[in-house]
Amino acid sequence: MFSLFSTFQGLGGNGAKAYQCIGCSGLITHSDQLLRMGTSNRHLFVNPAGIQCDFYTFSSCQGAVAHGPATEADTWFPGYRWRMAFCRHCGQHLGWHYEAVSPLERPSEFWGILVTYLHSV
Question: What is the tens place of the pLDDT at every residue in 83-100?
Answer without folding.
Answer: 999 999 999 999 999 999
